[in-house]
Write a structure and sequence with these properties.
About 60% of the residues lie in helices and about 0% in strands. By secondary structure, the protein is an all-alpha fold. Helix 25 runs antiparallel to helix 26 and helix 32 runs antiparallel to helix 33.
Length: about 725
């Protein structure tokens, strides 16, 4: 049975190890199982020296913000803004991080429609349109900031003047951007700057009013454009009516497609959403400009009149960036934040997070962006935890990707869960409503694993005081009912074969049945051993006595069978301690009162019948009990015959320490002399007692070793 139990424990542990290996292998994405030799970064990072924190300074600051956030949640306060908490971290780091969090804040500031799940929210047309509007706003504000910096960094060349505003800012910016006349520009100038360049850059800064100011001043050269631009400016979602749009597109195809003014072509392509194949590279020479131009051309309603070259959907644009261009096009190793921005601003949040997570130094940022999206219910999560970090699931619309959020979080915390378990728990708290494939709560599972791994039982789960009260642990911050969690960890420890830790945890969870069941398992193998200071037996004996005293004082008891086995094992420990100490009379008195073995022929059958009720923990020690009892009788016999000194010496140790044994139940053991047993006042009586032991050993339905039987017979023969 012991072997079978050990095998089951090993199988459970191996299953968990397999899951971990799979987590690491599958975390790297599409080519997860390609075992080519490459210097891929480890997903668990470098572990620091034991006892020291494995968190770097940035991770530590993030962990502090997560603690503040969870503290508010568990104390029932209003849910704080996690984006603001995480964005505060950026102030301590570089410009890229600040811009990243500004972008995340902008893109998540959307009005969500009521829906049953994140997929319905994310595929809702209104929400998708709002994502595009937020992205355009972010790109326009960023560009306006860029023009400010450029102008104020070159004041002499910019010649800033006039009424403050976007128009004057763009005029000054063009003094730097286009210092000399550019051939091919059309339709004249306003205040000495090209008309279409002014219109384009005012639009690029997000100020249509400033652009309209330019249009009005140059309206005589622009034909019908003023009417079209007014409609565009005042329309909902910056979209012309189908009739106007067709008119503008026709004009563009006939007169402007090969026009020499790139700014004029770009402005027409934006307000008419036409010629989507032209990337306007003369004007949109930066990735951000290209994004802004294309997002302006994205359309959502299918009017049926647009030809394919004039219709760009958000899904098409997303596919183009993620699959057609991909990482190689954007030189991600040199500019990781640029590719993250490209994906995030096109509402491909999961792909953006998964990409950033693969970069060792940027992993902490990716995880916290994921946490923000998760808390806002905007994140598309994988339905199963065996999925890759980024995956497409059957039944999802084309182009939709899901993030394995649970795996992402577990991979991140693995680096520091053994050195910083408190911090890891804060992250696991986000999984409190998540379930694994077996329907088990992920928070409970993670707490269980981290306690077993870190061995921080007292710190995390609390400690049992001498009076039986429980000193709270870290886990008390997250839940008022700690019993299910402690029982879960205890069960996990038990499955791993950590019986001593499991017994303490069950004790903490006020589960006396399991406490004594495991104590019986632990005590059984050490019963016949010699007790030495700091030995395994001494430690377990002290632990058992402490439990017994507390249970007795508080009136706590387990099932009768488990209870009686426990106290009988304690009595047997006392018996063997006296026996090994050479106190044969005291030891004999104990074994006589325990009524475990017969000490006269009249009691043999009664003891054989009683033997069937004993648990395995008691039965496994029967050979040693019989040998020790026979040894005591033999010592007393020799003492009577005068072959020993008057003071009995310590008897020879009877058996080697045994390996671990299995457990079950036992009848109650009463004290006091039994009527069958008489004081040993004659050698005949001693021989009769020895004969009873041998008869008993032969009759019990339990196979004792041949060596045990031989030694019993040998001592009995010597007494004759």
């Amino acid at each position: 049975m012991a072997e079978e139990y050990h095998r089951e424990s090993m199988l459970v542990e191996w299953e968990q190890v397999k899951q971990r290996i799979l987590h690491t292998l599958l975390a790297s994405g599409e080519d997860a199982l390609d075992f080519t030799q490459e210097n891929e970064p480890s997903y668990t990072g470098e572990l620091g020296p034991p006892g020291r924190s494995s968190l770097d300074s940035m991770e530590m600051v993030y962990a502090r913000q997560i603690y503040i956030y969870n503290e508010k949640i568990v104390n029932g306060h209003l849910q704080p803004n996690l984006v603001d908490l995480c964005a505060a971290v950026a102030e301590l780091d570089d410009k890229n991080i600040s811009e990243m969090w500004a972008m995340v804040k902008q893109m998540t500031d959307v009005t969500l429609v009521p829906a049953s799940d994140a997929l319905k929210v994310r595929t809702n047309m209104e929400v998708r349109m709002e994502f595009v509007r937020q992205a355009l706003q972010y790109l326009e504000q960023s560009y306006k900031n860029y023009t400010f910096v450029t102008v104020f960094g070159n004041l002499h060349q910019a010649q800033l003047g006039g009424v403050p505003g976007t128009f004057q800012l763009v005029c000054s910016f063009l003094n730097i951007k286009l210092p000399a006349p550019v051939p091919g520009l059309q339709d004249g100038e306003v205040e000495g700057r090209p008309v279409w360049a002014l219109i384009y850059y005012c639009m690029r800064c997000g100020d249509l009013t400033a652009a309209m100011h330019v249009v009005k001043r140059a309206q005589h050269q622009l034909g019908e454009f003023k009417t079209w631009f007014q409609e565009y400016m005042h329309s909902k979602d910056r979209r012309l009516s189908p009739a106007t749009e067709n008119k503008l597109r026709l004009h563009y195809r006939r007169a402007l497609r090969n026009n020499t003014d790139p700014y004029k072509r770009a402005v027409y392509c934006i307000i008419g959403r036409c010629d989507i194949t032209d990337n306007q590279s003369e004007v949109a020479d930066k990735t951000e400009d290209y994004l802004w131009l294309k997002l302006n051309q994205v359309c959502f309603d299918d009017d049926g009149a647009s030809s394919p070259q004039d219709r760009l959907t958000l899904s098409q644009f997303q596919k183009q960036l993620l699959e057609d261009y991909g990482e190689s096009h954007f030189a991600v190793n040199q500019q990781p934040f640029l590719y993250f921005q490209v994906l995030f601003l096109t509402a491909q949040f999961e792909a953006a997070i998964a990409f950033l997570f693969r970069m060792e130094r940027l992993r902490c940022h990716a995880v916290h962006v994921a946490l923000v999206m998760f808390e806002l219910k905007l994140l598309l999560k994988s339905s199963g935890q065996s999925a890759q970090l980024l995956s497409h699931e059957a039944g999802d619309p084309p182009g939709v990707r899901r993030l394995n959020f649970v795996r992402l979080l577990m991979l991140y915390t693995r680096k520091f869960e053994s050195t910083d378990p408190r911090e890891a728990l804060q992250y696991f708290y986000f999984l409190r409503n998540e379930k694994d494939s077996q329907g088990e709560n992920m928070f409970l599972r993670c707490v269980s694993e981290i306690v077993i791994e870190s061995r921080e039982f007292d710190m995390i789960l609390g400690k049992l005081e001498n009076d039986g009260s429980r000193k709270p642990g870290v886990i008390d911050k997250f839940t008022s009912d700690t019993k299910p969690i402690i029982n879960k960890v205890a069960s996990a420890a038990e499955n791993k074969g950590l019986f001593e830790e499991a017994a303490k945890l069950y004790d903490l969870a006020k589960n006396p049945d399991k406490v004594l069941e495991l104590m019986n398992k632990l005590l059984s193998p050490v019963i016949p051993q010699i007790s030495t200071p700091q030995s395994n037996k001494e430690r377990l004996k002290n632990m058992a006595h402490s439990i017994a005293e507390r249970y007795k004082a508080q009136g706590i008891s387990a099932k009768k069978s488990i209870d009686s086995t426990f106290y009988l094992l304690l009595d047997l420990i006392t018996f063997f301690d006296e026996y090994h100490a050479g106190h044969v009379d005291r030891a004999f008195d104990i074994i006589e009162r325990l009524k475990l073995v017969p000490l006269s022929q009249d009691c043999v059958e009664e003891r054989v019948a009683a033997f069937r009720n004993f648990s395995d923990e008691i039965r496994h020690n029967l050979s040693e009990v019989l040998l020790a009892t026979m040894n005591i009788l033999f010592t007393q016999y020799k003492r009577m015959k005068g072959t020993s000194p008057t003071t009995p010496t310590r008897p020879q140790r009877v058996m080697e320490d045994r390996d671990s044994a299995e457990i079950a139940v036992s009848p109650d053991c009463s004290a006091g002399n039994h009527g069958c047993n008489n004081s040993p006042d004659s050698d005949a009586h001693l021989r009769s007692q020895a004969r009873a032991l041998i008869t008993f050993a032969g009759m019990i339905p339990y196979r004792t070793s041949g060596d045990t039987n031989a030694r019993l017979v040998q001592m009995e023969v010597l007494m004759n």
